[in-house]
Queue: 2 jobs
Job 1
Amino acid sequence: MGLTSYLVVSALLFGIGAFGFLARRNAILMLICIELMLNAVNLSLVAFNAYMPTPGNIGGVFSLLVMAVAAAEATVGLALVIAIIRTRQTPEVDEYSDLKE
Amino acid sequence: MGPPHAACARIERGLASFRGRSERSNPTKESLALDITAVLFVLLAVGVVGGGLAVVTLRNVIHSAIAMMVCFGSLAGMYLLLGAGIVAAAQVLIYLGAISVLILFAIMLTQAGDANLPSPFASQAWLAVGVSLIVVAIITFTAVTTDWAAAAEVTVISLQALSQVLFTDYALPFEILSLLLLAAIIGAIFLARRPEDDEGMN
């Protein structure tokens, strides 16, 4: 299997994540979709690294860094979502239409 | 790194003997090695894309989170196919182990019960379909039409070389990342406190 097939899978996963982020109403699910997009980027990084003409490890290093940033993002994002859900009593994002209490 | 490759080699040999008996009369070793990689790739791609589709289409958020775990597990398999065993291990540890459990806990803390679930899609869902299809089409077109001058064989990442690069050339990003994680921990604790704690402090 060549580089192109991995890139196509990565593009599909990114598109699915983008669709879910734009179309779903649940705040937690939107965070899951961000994770899907980050994973799609990770897949393309690792694929590029594996098929580099001159062997190297930079893609692996960068995918590990992306994973750590994704973990931090998920932690803070979920804490934010839980705080919002506590005050608004709903996970649906189209209910969060005003900024005032 | 040893055991997965040994297992892969065993599976390859087993499949080679099986194929040799059933389908092909005189298969060469190279074509069979390509075959098992292709079969595994197709299975994992179905897992990744099918899991992703299930995440965005399922009505119940808990089912979506389970589908997300399937998707991430298949991605770990893909990293193994690409010769990045350490990235696959990190994927299993961080995504399957930590982030999935975190998301499942968040769902269980916030879900009010699934008695009458409203429509999961916002009103602009069709617009979102169009936008994401355009994005996929552009990326796929670029990926297919570009001549990548890629190597024919997958380079296996050696753990030793990767650690060498990570702790010498990329030591600064690594340290900044530890600061970022510390900030994330503090921020999460601050944000997730209950409102009554604030009232008690004020």
Job 2
Amino acid sequence: MSERLSPLSVGYRALETAGRLGWILIFVTFGSTQAGLQTWQAALLVVGGLLAAGLYQLVYWQRFEYELTPDTFDIRSGVFSRRTREIPLRRVQNVDLQRNVLQRAFGLTEVRLETAGGSDTEAQLRFVTEAEAERLRREISRLKRGTTETADGEPAPEPEAELLFAVTPRELLVLGVVSVDLRLLSLVTVVLPILAPSMTTGFGPMQDPLLALVLGAPVLAVFIVVTAALISGLYSVTNYWGFELRRVEDELRYDRGLLQRFSGTIPLSKVQALALSENVLARRLGYASLSVETAGYAPGEGSGSQSAVPIAERDRVLALARSVESFEEVTFERPPKRARLRYVVRYTAVALLAVVAAYAVNRFTGFTFAWYLAFGLLPLAPVGAHLKWRNLGYALLEDHFVARGGFWSRETRIVPYYRVQTVIESATVFQRRRDLATLVVDTAGSGGLTGSDARALDIDADRAVELRALVEERLQRALDEARADRRRRRLVDLQRTDTGGFAGDPSPGDD
Amino acid sequence: MSDRDGPGEAETADPVERPDERADRTAVEGDDATADESPTPGTDEREPTDVAEDEAGNEAGAPDAAAAETAPPAPAEVDIEALTGPERTLHPRVRYVWVLQAAITGVVFGVMAGIPGFFVLEEPLVGPAVFLLVFGIGATLAVFRYRRWSYEVREDSLFLDRGVITRTRTVVPYVRIQHVDASRGPVERAFGLATAVVYTAGSRGADVSIPGLTPERADDLQDRLKRLAIAAEGEDAV
């Protein structure tokens, strides 16, 4: 009993394709002056394009079938090259639903299943009806839990959903403020060279570039910062509008989004690591955000889609984190003071480099200014070094390894030993000079690109060796415990089967 | 540097150590033979094809679980002692591989710098100078890298110690091994060497490679790691 996508998806996808082709059409129609097309020709092209897209999507729809079996999710798809894919349900990491404004108007939803393998989404249903999407999610959760029908063939009742967190307007406001993404400012480097000439010539009397810079730069900077702040703030607010986090048995479920609705599940049994992040603003206000990492997403993909709590007061976030992974009070160990010295040297070197660069620009290009002002950076080096050092820390808890770092955006990562993949201890030439080393505790999480592994930076070299052994030892201990636990469960299962039950017997005491 | 950072394999340069090693290997082969010819209860149907498969099997059906329950999990019977070994260094020939790779990188950089050097600066020595510099650094690093490199097949994990400029020690618990490759690049083939690559699901250093192995050793290591991974009875890796 395989299912099809929603028939409406044909229309939506055709429009989507036509929309993409539209650019080419516009280019063809208006781009070439010599072979300019008549209006009717253009119209013909548009209609033809739509028809072709519609036809293709119709075939796509016809040939796309999926089926949810008790153990797998099967997809048969492909217009030109056929593909059959079976995804074992127990390997499914996340089930995500999303729908943008247009899709909501059509009543369509996109469903994605993520597993740990590969970099792509393993199954992408574009699109099914909302009801079907809900059904799929419910069924997958149910099948993964392994509960089957009750004795009389009725499906087991949907387990209770416990609301863990709902974002308040106040929190949304805070979110908008603290999520001002300074990375947007890097746009400045792109925009500035374009704007700069017009700025200097624009202000008629200010022929002196220095004066123009002094007067223009702050205005420009303020403008850019405000724009960036507004954009990133608005983005996060719409993104996390109406955020709600629920716990359904052993899964977390979130819903969020104003224009584009997202909703997804995070299986607690697949949690690889927790990351608590607080940027400098959020720290001031006493807020933090929490993300729960599973191995379902490729690094860098699905920005924030695993964010369990976008923003909340720190204590609340910690409490939530503890409900996912029960870790005790954390007391951080800081790297030795000589690590701080290392940062002083490093930042001083950077400052000196800036001075040299400023001098070189002043000396060798027509652009003259008070280059020696760059010396003002030098006193900042020790301050920066201290701040960096102060925010570093690590801790070995009973069942978790915790590492923290970053001043502007401080991130605390909590990794259960049980999820450790590899342990890497490294020391560069510079670290060795000061007898320091870095310990990285790697998991299969999706932190990836931003280099956000749990790492204890610049700790004492001997301590690093010790920690490496400890983490490994505790991983083995955790594995042993899990193994013993598994055997016990199996034994219980077996006994139950032996005493006349059957394999699918609902087992209330199955924990 | 062009060379892979990958870890190299440690075949001891020291000729005295070699026979020892060999003995170790034959022991493993012996083990192998028994497993292949007359399947022991330990290694039977769960033919150690792939860790993931094994796991799946382990967890999946009740019948399998039952089997695993009555007879204690089969993999536990693998003789771990025989599979582990002392700390090893790479085969000394790996230096030539790295030196040759450094030479290739040197040529590439030399040509890249030499062409503008010759035509723009009219200085014919730029190319050779760059080549010598790159090659010199690469060759020196190759020697030191060889000296630094060691690996150890421990009881619970594979341990690698390597790196000249950044010294890195990696612990790869067998339980986390997804699969193991033995690969041979063209330069390696020229010197009769191979590399073993160990994959984990980790987000960083997802693949750990041990270069400078003789092909037999690479195969042997691959096989040993495979067995150890199975014996580690990994549950859900992720």
